């Protein structure tokens, strides 16, 4: 069959036709007239119409297809069509490999667009803007619409949210008129991430009610508050209550440090009181306000009395003479004398710690007692030097409570210059407030006149 079909090949067909012509020529005598091409052509046509060929010297039968040329033309057209189709397929494959369909990134995260861009070797240009509607890094828009084909390696521009503007001024409501839920809604609506609601216990404010507000710094006020500023709003959690499940130990005779450790562990408030004791050592517990093994709750208060040891009772120095005042044991007594107009000499004027006071180990044992020096007695300073008068008057009078002062005047005298030669009063009792005039020698006379000369001028103290 294959041999038969091969006869219809264009080369075999031409070859067979040439062999047939040669055979015809061999059968025709040389001296005869040559057959005209027209007769050969008509013979070929007859052969085609009869659909049979005569046997050649190889006994093969040749069949001529009259539609051969048309088939060959169609074959070329098919080859061209297939070539065009192949080119289109190649172009389609190339386009598909180098282009990608744009997804929808709007309302999604920038990270999604970044992952997609890296996967498709595209450059992502993120432009950020403030937005109260969109969350941070959420895409607002993209420059290439969803579904559009874009070439790989190109630039994709997306606009993403930076979140709300942190520097925007916010008008704060009156939190005292709002519930906790109202404030939570206000925070969510204005995206105030730095506004915090906290609750704490209160013995006076009902649960859920407003307590106070606290800004992040002293410079922040309700008038200049911005979104980025810190603010804490406190609401009451009501009164804190605890179960009475803590057993109180017997602290009597125990150290104060043991009470403090137990109170810290169990969150108990301790009120310390102090008292002297002749039996309990200083620093040890004398008594407690709650009996041992009694059940109390956290935050409850327990009063504990701590011994200060044996107390020193301050005596009444009215009953003690100035000579014996500094001999009192356990006390450091400082004795002073002071002039008094109506209190006789030696009697007590005052003591710095009242009589009957109990001084504990933590207290100072120093006491100042002041006795009376009686009325001031103005001594004679005649013969003294003027320069010694300030010290003398301070030590003799002013340091003892008497405001005794002096004035000076200068007189002609044969006494040494600067010597006291005259006093307006001396060697007598005077009042607590008194001024004496003193005459000072000029030393300008040759011979003394009983130390007294003629007065010229007077001067103040």
TrEMBL record:
Record field: compositional bias (Polar residues): 1-12, 35-50
The keyword Membrane is assigned to this record: yes
Top-level taxon in the UniProt lineage: Bacteria
Basic and acidic residues composition-biased segments: 13-30
InterPro entries: PASTA_dom
UniProt keywords, alphabetically: Membrane, Transmembrane, Transmembrane helix
Region Disordered: start-end pairs: 1-58
Every PASTA domain range: 96-162, 238-308, 309-373
TM region positions: 78-95
The protein's name in its UniProt record: PASTA domain-containing protein
């Amino acid at each position: 069959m294959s041999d038969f079909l091969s006869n219809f090949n264009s080369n075999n067909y031409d070859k067979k036709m040439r062999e047939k012509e040669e055979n015809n020529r061999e059968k025709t005598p040389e001296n005869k007239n040559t057959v005209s091409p027209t007769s050969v052509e008509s013979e070929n046509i007859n052969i085609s119409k009869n659909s049979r060929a005569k046997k050649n010297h190889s006994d093969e039968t040749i069949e001529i297809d009259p539609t051969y040329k048309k088939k060959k033309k169609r074959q070329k057209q098919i080859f061209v069509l297939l070539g065009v189709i192949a080119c289109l397929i190649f172009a389609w494959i190339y386009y598909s490999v180098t282009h990608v369909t744009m997804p929808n990134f709007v309302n999604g995260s920038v990270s999604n667009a970044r992952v997609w861009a890296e996967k498709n070797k595209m450059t992502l240009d993120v432009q950020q803007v403030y937005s109260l509607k969109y969350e941070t890094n959420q895409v607002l828009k993209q420059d290439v619409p969803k579904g559009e084909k874009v070439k790989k390696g190109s630039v994709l521009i997306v606009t993403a949210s930076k979140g709300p503007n942190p520097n925007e001024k916010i008008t704060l409501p009156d939190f005292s008129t709002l519930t906790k839920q109202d404030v939570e809604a206000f925070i969510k609506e204005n995206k105030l991430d730095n506004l915090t609601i906290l609750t704490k216990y209160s013995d006076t404010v009902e649960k859920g009610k407003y307590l106070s507000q606290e800004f992040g710094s002293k410079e922040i006020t309700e008038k200049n508050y911005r979104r980025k500023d810190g603010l804490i709003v406190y609401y009451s959690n009501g009164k804190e209550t605890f179960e009475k499940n803590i057993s109180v130990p017997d602290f009597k005779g125990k150290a104060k440090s043991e009470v403090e450790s137990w109170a810290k562990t169990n969150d108990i408030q301790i009120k310390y009181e102090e008292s002297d004791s002749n039996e309990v050592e200083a620093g040890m517990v004398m008594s407690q306000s709650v009996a041992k093994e009694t059940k109390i709750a956290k935050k409850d208060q327990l009063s504990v009395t701590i011994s200060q040891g044996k107390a020193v009772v301050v005596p009444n120095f009215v009953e003690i003479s100035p000579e014996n005042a500094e001999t009192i044991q356990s006390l450091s007594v400082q004795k002073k004398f002071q002039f008094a107009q109506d209190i006789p000499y030696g009697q007590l004027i005052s003591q710095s710690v009242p009589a009957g006071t109990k001084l504990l180990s933590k207290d100072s044992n120093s006491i100042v007692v002041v006795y009376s020096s009686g009325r001031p007695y103005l001594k004679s300073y005649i013969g003294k030097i003027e320069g010694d008068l300030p010290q003398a008057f301070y030590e003799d009078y002013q340091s003892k409570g008497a405001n005794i002062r002096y004035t000076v005047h200068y007189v002609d005298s044969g006494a040494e210059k600067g010597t006291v030669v005259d006093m307006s009063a001396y060697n007598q009792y005077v009042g607590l407030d008194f001024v004496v005039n003193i005459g000072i020698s000029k030393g300008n006379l040759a011979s003394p006149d009983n130390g007294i000369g003629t007065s010229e001028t007077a001067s103040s103290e």
